[in-house]
Amino acid sequence: MTADTTWKNLVVRQLVEVVAQIQTVTPTGSPGDLLPAGRRFRIVLVLGLLTALGPLTIDMYLPSLPTITDDLQTTAAAVQLTLTGTLVGLAFGQLLVGPLSDAIGRRLPLLAGIAVHVLASILCVIAPNLALLGALRVLQGLGAAAAAVVAMAIVRDLFDGMAAARLFSRLMLVVGVAPILAPTIGGLVLGWTSWRGVFVVLTAVGVAIMVASAVVLPETLPVARRRNGGVAGTLRDYGRLFTDRVYVGLILVAGLAMAALFAYVSGSSYVFQDGYGMSEQQFALVFAGGAVGLIGATQFNVRLLRWFTPQQILGGSLVAGLFFGLVLLVLAATDTGGLVGILIPLWLVLTMVGLAMPNAPALALSRHGEAAGTAAALLGAVQFGVGALAAPLVGVLGVGAVAMAIVVFGGMLAATVVCFLVVRPHQLEFDESLPAVAVAH
User: Fold this and answer.
1) 151 and 171 in contact (C-beta within 8 Å)?
2) Residue 440 DSSP label
3) Which residues does the UniProt record annotate as the domain Major facilitator superfamily (MFS) profile (predicted)?
4) 68-79 pLDDT, tens digit each
5) Residue 193: which CATH number?
6) Model confidence, pTM
């Protein structure tokens, strides 16, 4: 069996695990319990698809970058800006869609956003130049943002307390698998068609998700709980969120943990392929190994929640991640242990990030159920905004093992400091019996 086949089999096994784990969601005591088990499973499955749309939009495109550079007769740097545009759309779109979903309900902004994504994908297929392609990628990001932020808001509408933390762990499984699967799909598409075929596939994915959302997802925000304050009301909501020290600290923790993850994603190919001479197949296995640690931790988090609170897990994982990040930096700087000296502490950091990432959003959103869409929007924007800064920072520092280790350690250090000085998890209460939210049909 080749390394490439082994990697693809790993991805298939992870997809099977996604379905199996989603099927086990049983949010005892939360509003989602009012739904029949079969319908609850379908809702959670569609939430997983919505969560995957952003990573698929970003990563399915990656193998096409050199081909686009040649086909549109431009530079690699210019083509990479289209990725930046997608991230900008994802961050900015969440800030717009979140408050809108609090004002008019979840379904309409969600379906409209996916429709924008589908339209932009269709136009990308026929884009004649890089400038138009870049603008359309921003629109794709805006559409994917609607899927991401509304999915989080629906989780908060239906599930409270521990149930929300468990479901975020399940959805993190999707977030972990999608970036591994997306480049594989993109590479397969390029095997039988041009880079434009990638956008044909994204169009089909968008249409399928829009149909599934329209058929399966109920309106989870009743009219009585909607916030119709217009632009002024939106600004007041954001202002109110910024006055909540704990909430601001938690979204910063989530963003800084994401920065450590993005540092690994952006720097690992240079470190392992250029620095250690790995082939593409060998790098794929190493990258998948890190993803397995991240994914496994998000699922182990569900078991840990039986014995520990989300704030205890968050604080403990950040301290452990900081320690492993320091080990990574020392071994990289002193060139001790070679490849193993990089891989082991790096995978351990990713594992700790996998424990921290589901609990920070669950704790943050539990504080603002009255404006879940706005709170989820700000959370997502900070995650993408702060996290995306890690990629160019690794490049500025030199795109080597030490550069990657510095940014990984720096992200974990900043996240730990913010957690214990701003959030203060040891003083934070997490009430599982938060106000229930009825499901409007």
Assistant:
1) yes
2) B
3) 43-428
4) 888 888 876 677
5) 1.20.1250.20
6) 0.68
